[in-house]
Amino acid sequence: MEVNVLDISGKETGAKVQLPESVFGVEPNDHAIYLDVKQYLANQRQGTHKSKQRNEIAGSTRKLHKQKGTGGARAGSIKSPLFNGGGRIFGPQPRDYSFKLNKKLKALARKSALSYKAKENNIVVLDDVNFDSIKTKNYINLVNNLKVAEEKTLLVLAEQNNNVYLSSRNLKKTKVITANQLNTYDVLNAGKLLLTAASVKTLEEAFAK
């Protein structure tokens, strides 16, 4: 699949980039995508939720009243889960939600997500993206020139560029990552995928391993 290469002003440079079929033209595997996105979201969870059990509640352990003869249910302590302020039965405890997936499945999920973007013509290839200074206005001009200001965009660079990253950080609908940080969730969450010619080559080399 050939794509015209644009510059940061949104004009065609005359060059074209071949999106490799092995990365952007595979048969998408929806279940692999589901598992990879599920893992990504699970890994974001802190898992620090905690409620107190009856042995952790501050309070007296004195028996509230005699066992029999009151006409009410027996009660052993004010910390019983049956009373307001008592402990909680089977409440949440700190845990690790992360789980592992094998590398081949994760690679298939990423290629499937990229293939969906290619089929929907939601990939824009740029010659290069670089700013002389850190200004949010620079990135706003970029998305305006590419006519994608109203969409969520994911810009994938071949290597880290602080000027570009910091210029985009204040904008809600944009995200800038490097090719080695690419993940299925970010690709699918973006309306338009912005790649540089160098990042296309980096992705091809990464998935060829």
UniProtKB/TrEMBL annotation:
The record lists the organism as: Parapedobacter composti
Describe the protein's quaternary organization and the partners it interacts with.
Answer: Part of the 50S ribosomal subunit.
Residue ranges of the region described as Disordered: 45-77
Please give the HAMAP family that the UniProt record associates with this protein.
Answer: Ribosomal_uL4_B (MF_01328_B)
By its UniProt entry, which Pfam families does this protein fall under? Ribosomal_L4
> GO cellular-component terms in the record?
ribonucleoprotein complex; ribosome
Protein's name according to its UniProt entry: Large ribosomal subunit protein uL4
Q: Which UniProt keywords apply?
A: Ribonucleoprotein, Ribosomal protein, RNA-binding, rRNA-binding
**Gene label:** rplD
Which NCBIfam families does this UniProt record tie to the protein? rplD_bact
Purpose: Forms part of the polypeptide exit tunnel.
Query: Which molecular-function annotations from GO does this UniProt entry contain?
Result: rRNA binding; structural constituent of ribosome
Its domain of life reads: Bacteria
Where would one find the signal peptide in this protein? none
Q: Which family does it belong to?
A: Belongs to the universal ribosomal protein uL4 family.
Q: Which GO terms describe its biological process?
A: translation
SUPFAM superfamilies tied to this protein:
Ribosomal protein L4
**Organism taxonomic ancestry:** Bacteria, Pseudomonadati, Bacteroidota, Sphingobacteriia, Sphingobacteriales
